[in-house]
Known about the structure:
Layout: E1 2-5, E2 11-22, E3 25-37, E4 41-44, E5 57-66
Antiparallel strand pairs: 1-4, 2-3, 2-5
Amino acid sequence: MTVTNHGDRTVGDVHVEVTLVRDGAPVERTELTLPEVPRRSSRAGASTLQTDPAPGQLRARVLGYSEP
């Protein structure tokens, strides 16, 4: 997945939650942390799931971050 920082400040410890959803219900959840996302840039990361995500939908959201 790719996290984009549209802001004017670099952020660190960006915590992202990824949820696998099937038929509107969450099946599995995982998290990943990106050490830094500079201002007006993007960073990519990956997280693994135990369940095959093929028939479902992945939803990601930022849970929090810090300003170094």
